[in-house]
Predict the 3D structure of the following.
Amino acid sequence: MPISGILSIITNLSKNYEMAANVVKKIKIFYSYAHEDKAFRDGIDRHLATLRRLGQIITWYDREILPGLEWAHEIDAHLENSDIILLFISSFFVTSQVA
């Protein structure tokens, strides 16, 4: 097989791979936790780092709210659009005053 044929096959495979990668939906994960449990959230985030790096997941938590944005609206929007909501239930979480 001539080199041009091999290059054509590689190009087609590459295009198919890119199309398949774009079709796969990234799973959106929302972290809900008490700020006292930040170390635990950070640990889970490290475990999920490979999936995030591969583009399979997107994680979000309230510390990502940009200054000047209305926090309740941002949290509601991310909750509404998340595929998975991870609740880190602890004594801190249960006794928090956030409504």
About this structure: Residues 65 and 71 are 7 Å apart (CA to CA). The two ends are 68 Å apart (CA to CA).
